[in-house]
């Protein structure tokens, strides 16, 4: 397993609380604040995280998917092994629909499209990732321009990851020439400095309830 930035760096945990968006006997849907790990990091100072906070109230909560430290938004947390297994299979089958909202530098040339660029760990710049045609794993992101602010030269974009590679949305948008505001890992310094946080938020998720088989969908608007 390659080291991630969440293993290597001390990442101060946000004091902003998580929000419960949905709760029943077998699962939770929560809204994670930015600047909070989903699970504990390897660094001893990175033990405060979303799942540990949730487990104080819901001791059996488990993680089935993650958001980066810098990313806010929706996460599904199973409360039983059966539900964990079922939702894991939905993710593996790519039947869970998710989309994100991001603020990026510049104006997109096309209003919508698919970014299909393989991604691999950047051995020369760990813990970063890069587009790599030779060793990269297949990676696809659907994108759609939502609005453009000409005064700031910034675009609001909806992003739907077809695959779920590490840092996929950041690297794919960078490859298009549109770095995310507040991205201290990939954006040029002037773009990174335009926001105190990464402007990336997991806004929408849809999946099938493991017991009732009802289709559940949730939206939490981006806080930016």
Automatic annotation (TrEMBL):
For this protein, what is the EC number? 5.4.99.-
Pseudouridine synthase RsuA/RluA-like domain mapped to chain residues: 27-174
InterPro entries reported in the protein's UniProt record: PsdUridine_synth_cat_dom_sf, PsdUridine_synth_RluC/D, PsdUridine_synth_RsuA/RluA, RluA_PseudoU_synthase
List keywords of the entry alphabetically.
Answer: Isomerase, tRNA processing
Report the SUPFAM superfamilies cross-referenced here.
Answer: Pseudouridine synthase
Task: Locate the transmembrane regions by residue number.
Answer: none
Question: Which reaction is catalysed here?
Answer: a uridine in RNA = a pseudouridine in RNA
GO MF annotations, alphabetized: catalytic activity, acting on RNA; pseudouridine synthase activity; RNA binding
Catalytic residue list = 68
Report any one BP term from Gene Ontology. Answer: tRNA processing
Q: Which family does it belong to?
A: Belongs to the pseudouridine synthase RluA family.
Query: What is its biological role?
Result: Responsible for synthesis of pseudouridine from uracil.
Q: What is this protein called?
A: Pseudouridine synthase
Q: Which species does the entry assign this protein to? A: Rheinheimera lutimaris
